[in-house]
Amino acid sequence: MIPLNLLQEISEKYSTPGYIYDAEKIRENCTKITRAFTRHYPSTVVHFAVKANSCPAVLKIIAETGLSADCSSPFELLLANKCGFEKSKIMYTGNYESPQDLAFATEYASIINLDDITSLKRLTSFKVPEVVSFRINPGIGRGGFEGVVTGGVDAKFGVPYEQAFKAYQDAYDLGVRRFGIHMMTGSNNLEPLFFAEITEKLMHVAGDVFSRLGVAPEYIDIGGGFGIPYSNAESEIDIEKVAELVSSRFIENCKKYHFQTPILRIEPGRYITGNAGILLSRVTGKKTGYRNYTGLDAGMNSLLRPALYGAFHRIEAPFKKETPLVKTNLCGRICENSDIFARDILLPDLEEGDLVLFRDCGAYGFTMSSNYNGRPLPSEIVVDRGKVTYVRKKETPQEMLKKHFKEQES
Ligand SMILES: Cc1ncc(COP(=O)(O)O)c(C=O)c1O
C-alpha cells in the first residue's frame, strides 16, 4: 500500500487525474496466484491478460516475475513483445479476428486461441499453424455484472459446445496434430466453486472432442476471471481454494480421459493489477441545484467502469479528515449524464482543488480511458518501494492537437 503522504507528494508534483500503481503489490499478486496453482499442479502457466493494464512499466514488472502474456489485439502483441515477453510466452485470444489480427498473432504469439470455426479458415488461408486451439463457449458463464459475462448462450464469444468437434476435425483434416483448448466465461468472480465447475465443464468438452479425434490436448486453458473485492462487503477470493479445486477436477479428468499431464493455462488480469492501482483526481467545481454535485477532473473518459457497468469503487477523500460528511453526487466533466461515479455518496465537504481517491483501479482503468470530449488521457505513475516513476504524462491540449494532425497526414 502506498502511504498517503507519498500520494500527497505525488499529487503536488504531477497533474491529476493520474493512475498510480504499486509495483510491490503487483509482484505479490503474481507470486500468490502462481504459487497457489503450481503447488497443486506444477505444469500451470500463468498468462497476464494485457487488456487489464497495458502500462509499459507494469508489463515489464510482470514479465520479470516470469509470467506469460495473453493479448487481444495487434497493439497488445507489439507492446507485450516490447515489454519483455518472449514470443514463446505470448498467447493471442481475439474475437471476430481479421486477417490482419491473425497475421500479427502468427508473427508475435506462439499460441492462438481461435474464437470460431470460421476463424480457422481465415488463419489457414495464409498459414496452417502447428498447434490449433479454439475458445469454447461451454454454455455457462458468470461475472461480477452482466457486461463481464463472456460465456453462455447470450455471449458473443467462442465456439458453441455442439460445434467443437467439427472445429477440431477441420483442423485435423488440414494435417494439424497438436491441439489446445480454451475458454473464458466471465470476469470478477469471487466464488472458488465456480472455477471448479467451469473447469469440469471444459474437461468434459475436451474429453469428448479429443477422444473422438484420437489425440490428446497439449494444453487446457480455463481463462481468467479471478475477482477482487471492490466494496467492504466483499471478501478476497480464496485463491488457494480456487487452485486446489480447479487442480483436483483437472487431474481427475485428465486421468479419466487419458490425457498425459497437459499444461494448465490461466489468464488472470484483474487479480494481478486490480488492487495495485488507484486513481487520484481533483475537484474542479461544486454545484448546488436540484441535487448537490461535485465535479472532478476525472470522468468516464478516465475511469469508464462506473458508467459502463454501474461498477462500484471505494471513493475516499483521505486528505480532508476533519471535515463533516455531506451527501453529494460525484461526477466528471463529460457531456453525458452517465458520467457519474457515485450518487448520494457521503464524503467530507469538498472544495475546489481537493483530492479524491478511487481504490482498486489497477485493472480496466487506464486501458478503458479515452479522449472523449477532447479530454486528455490520465497520467500513469509507478511506485516501487518508495521510488516514484512518472511513466506517462497527461497530454496537454496542444499535444493532442499535434497528434491529431499527425494522424491525418500519415
Ligand atoms: C480472453 C480473456 N482472458 C483473460 C481475461 C482476463 O479476465 P480477468 O481480468 O477477469 O481475469 C479476459 C477479460 O475479459 C479475456 O477476455
Keywords, separated by commas or semicolons:
single chain; 410 residues; alpha/beta; Lyase, Ornithine Decarboxylase, Chain A, domain 1; TIM Barrel; nine-stranded mixed beta sheet; eight-stranded parallel β-barrel; 12 helices; 18 strands; 34% helix; binds pyridoxal-5'-phosphate
Written description of the protein model:
The protein contains twelve helices and 18 strands. The chain has 410 residues and is of the alpha/beta class. It folds into two domains: 4-19 and 275-409, Beta Barrel (Lyase, Ornithine Decarboxylase, Chain A, domain 1), CATH 2.40.37; 23-273, Alanine racemase (TIM Barrel), CATH 3.20.20. The strands form two sheets. Strands 1, 11, 12, 13, 14, 15, 16, 17 and 18 form a nine-stranded mixed β-sheet that branches. An eight-stranded parallel β-barrel has the order 2-3-4-5-6-8-9-10, surrounded by six helices. It is globular and about 70 Å long. The mean pLDDT is 96. Bound molecules: pyridoxal-5'-phosphate.
Q: Classify the secondary structure makeup into a structural class.
A: alpha/beta
CATH class of the largest domain, named Alpha Beta
Low-pLDDT runs of 5+ residues are none
How many DSSP H or I helices? Answer: 12
Bound molecules: pyridoxal-5'-phosphate
- Provide the domain count: 2
CATH H-level superfamily of the largest domain? Alanine racemase
Number of strands: 18
Q: Which architecture of the largest domain does the CATH hierarchy give at level 2?
A: Alpha-Beta Barrel
* CA-based gyration radius: 22 Å
Distance between the termini: 44 Å
Global shape = globular
Question: Can you tell me the CATH topology of the largest domain?
Answer: TIM Barrel
